[in-house]
Amino acid sequence: MLLHGILPPITTPFYPDGSVYFKKLEHNVERYSKAPVAGMVVLGSTGESIMLSDDERRNVLKCAREHAAPEKVLLAGTGIESAAETLRLTEYAATLGYDVAMVRTPHYYKRQMLPANLLAFYRTVADRSPLPVIIYNFPQATGYDIPAEVVIELAEHPNLIGIKESAGVIDKVKKMVEGTRHIKREASVTDIFNAVTPRMHAGAGNGDLLSASSLGGTAVAAPPKFKTRTKEVGYQVLVGSAHLLKDSLDVGAVGAILAFACAAPTACYEIYAAWKEGDAALASEKQKRIVEASHKVGGELGIPGIKYAMDLNGYYGGPSRLPLLPLTAEQKAEVERLMADIRN
User: Fold this and answer.
1) For 63-108, what is each residue's pLDDT tens digit?
2) Which of 45, 163, 279, 302 registers the highest number of CB atoms within 10 A of its CB?
């Protein structure tokens, strides 16, 4: 499964009364489907997944899946504290047609989160998951930072295909990349090296029958709608810090899942595209352009900041759920200033 490129971890829209605003979720997903992103993550941290009920999580997954473009890779955030509940949500995501499960590190019982616990947890999930799994490490929120050595050991599992590393430490990214370099895996891609997932294969017309009347009475299998090739991908390290995107790519990360991309997907993609083309100077220029905004909007102001920036850029951000508070007038003015030159 190819996970290269930029993927926004989409927000969950709410009405002012706090209920999920599904029409706006549809709107956002359809807009991201037209953006130059590789795919989307549904129910990540930016999606306020921890604030949702079980039914709401399932309904959000279903709505996003139904309105995403078929060529976009879809990751479902299915991590819950127990392996059993994580697998239950992962299995539901698989029935909807998601491509990958993103499973955050369990963290509530921090003192018991020793390497043996994490190894057992992720191996159990990966053994039973109908979807490929990536680890999600976000110590700023969980208070737990999975050691690079544990990630490297887990990378040997064939169904653990990567990690979203959001600690924001370049040396750790480099260590994980170097420690997993020996892992050789392949993924199906298109002629222009875009991802091809089993869901995409199933929906491409492969195996469908053309009508007998259109072929003089003979029914035959329809040809594929796209040709595929294989690409070596190995263990895939993605990052979650927009201000460190270029530096992370330089040490071997293959892409990023960026909250800032919810408000500015094109600006984030331009960094990746310039780096991919080997234009280091342009990539650095594009990186500098978003550093202050990503620090303030995504890092300091968090989800309310991201949602307000989305409102400025044609997406629906709207309110967050308590205990997250709306921005003050002063904070809004600051976001407006920072986003003035970052449009999509």
Assistant:
1) 999 999 999 999 999 999 999 999 999 999 999 999 999 999 999 9
2) 163
Asked if residues 261 and 213 have their Cβ atoms less than 8 Å apart, the reply is: no
What sections of 35-166 are H helices per DSSP? 54-67, 83-96, 115-128, 139-142, 148-154
Single pTM value for the model: 0.92
pLDDT in tens, 296-320: 998 999 999 999 999 999 999 999 9
Q: How many CA atoms lie within 13 A of 128 on its CB side?
A: 15
CA atoms within 13 A on the CB side of 174: 8
CA 18-139-294 angle, 5° bins: 70
d(CA 341, CA 344): 10
102 Cβ partners below 8 Å, 6+ apart?
A: 41, 44, 75, 76, 77, 78, 79, 133, 134, 136, 164, 257
Of the residues 23, 62, 72, 164, which is catalytic? 164
Residue 338's alpha-carbon distances to 3, 293, 312, in angstroms, are 29, 5, 11
Neighbours of 320 (CB within 10 A): 24
Three-state secondary-structure class, residue 231:
strand
- For residue 198, the surrounding DSSP H or E stretch is helix 198-202
